[in-house]
Design brief:
The protein has about 400 residues and is of the alpha/beta class. It has 17 helices and 10 strands. The chain binds adenosine-5'-diphosphate and magnesium ion (MG).
């Protein structure tokens, strides 16, 4: 609505100036043909880019002048142009120019950029935040989940789930598919409201708050299926997370566009610094969705960490990664924790869970089945049963013994 209002304001100013120029106001000045022309400008120039609209305007004004003496065929020419653009170049002239530029001047995505490995890895010298140490010493939980129940019509996805996540820990959640793990994340992050129960983060209630407020309170997350913004580059994906402008600051677009550009430049700088930490600097200009799967996962984590959350929720981050990538992911999760962020990790890959988690909660059919250190969990009879059924239980127990 705000975008609509702002473009209306620009249009209004333009209309007032135009009326002043021709000393005459009449509805047929703005005929259907003009609307088609404007639409054609945007489509031919490129819907996704500001420069595109300007480019389209220049090109079509030129075309219009060329066709001045063939008024009758003008509409056909615009129509043909729009159809051709939609079919062959949906992102318009600007999109063509961008992809040509990328093809000519970009390096292919490097899976690992050796130059950027410096300064990475767990830094033991770095003092972990004092606040975190205190919380850990007092065993204060950063997240308290109390008696959370979630019903979807007839289906009970979560029933009376309660557990704590200790500050500064890496806490695992495991459980068979459909046991309610993702639903729990959605409730913690404000995507869904709980049917009953409460979630507190650092002592403050988060359940029932809107997702963006929960994010501002210091919760970051990734998604089970990667959800990068299509048609945005890796850098822009991170910039979206960094941009915490309030809705009322939107007036800047109208009154002081240069402030918007300055802010954007600042965000670019921050995003680049951030991407270097995750070895993604070399792919900053690539469309996120064009990267190999493992790197898309990494971009999602980088985006979630851009807000410097107190608590990071990772939903099956190792799914679809090869074994090297999985090991790197384990390192990365430990580094994130060492930098002061508590991690809550949903994962099926038990090797990863065993190697990074200090504590594990097992969900089964929407309820907490067991909780404890990873070694205890892996041997727990009920847990093995929930995963494999009773038939295989004797074999597994034999192999563990
Ligand atoms: P998990 O992540 O542990 O595999 P989910 O939390 O995704 O499990 O799902 C738990 C149960 O809740 C499943 O039976 C699923 O079909 C159901 N469910 C999840 N989201 C919805 C929804 N939006 N509407 C209806 N049912 C849902
Ligand atoms: Mg899930």
């Amino acid at each position: 609505i705000v975008a609509f209002m702002l473009s209306g304001a620009y249009g209004g100013v333009a209309g007032a100036l135009y009326a002043g120029m021709i000393h005459y106001v009449s509805p047929d000045t703005y005929s259907l043909a003009i609307m088609f022309l404007l639409l054609a400008m945007v489509i031919a120039g490129g819907r996704d880019s500001i420069y595109g609209a300007a480019l389209g305007a220049v090109v079509l004004i030129f075309v219009r002048q060329q066709f001045e003496s063939f008024q009758r065929y003008q509409q056909i020419a615009y129509g043909a142009l729009i159809v051709a653009m939609v079919l062959f170049a949906p992102s318009g002239l600007a999109g063509l120019a961008t992809s040509l530029w990328r093809r000519l001047f970009s390096r292919p995505p490097a899976v690992l950029d050796e130059d950027e490995v410096e300064g990475l890895g767990v830094d033991d010298e770095r003092p972990v935040l004092r606040e975190l140490d205190e919380a850990r010493a007092e065993r204060r939980p950063v997240l308290e989940i109390r008696d959370v129940t979630k019903r979807f019509k007839g289906l009970v996805a979560l029933r009376g789930v309660s557990f704590d996540v200790a500050a500064g820990s890496i806490h695992g959640i495991v459980g068979p598919n459909g046991s309610g793990k993702t639903t729990l994340f959605n409730i913690v992050t404000g995507v869904y409201g709980a049917s009953s129960g409460s979630v507190r983060m650092a002592g403050r209630r988060v359940s029932g708050r809107r997702a963006y407020r929960v994010a501002r309170q210091g919760v970051g997350r990734t998604f089970q299926t990667v959800r990068l913004f299509r048609s945005l580059t890796v850098r822009e994906n991170v910039m979206v997370a960094l941009d915490d402008s309030r809705p009322h600051s939107i007036w800047r677009y109208l009154l002081a566009p240069w402030l918007v550009l300055l802010r954007e430049r600042e965000l670019r700088r921050l995003a680049d610094r951030h991407l270097r930490r995750y070895q993604l600097a070399s792919v900053a200009d690539f469309l996120g969705t064009n990267l190999p799967y493992g790197q898309q996962r990494l971009v999602e984590i980088a985006r979630a960490m851009a807000t410097e959350p107190k608590l990071l929720l990772l939903d099956e981050p190792a799914a679809g990664l090869n074994s090297t990538e999985q090991r790197d992911l384990g390192e990365l999760i430990r580094r994130i924790r060492a930098d002061g962020t508590t991690v809550l990790l949903i994962e099926h890959n038990m090797a990863l869970v065993m190697s990074v988690c200090e504590r594990v909660t097992v969900l089964s059919s929407g309820a907490v089945l067991a909780e404890g250190a990873p070694e205890e969990i892996a041997r727990d009879r009920r847990v093995i049963e929930a995963y494999l059924g009773t038939a295989l239980l004797p074999d597994v127990e034999e192999s563990l013994a």
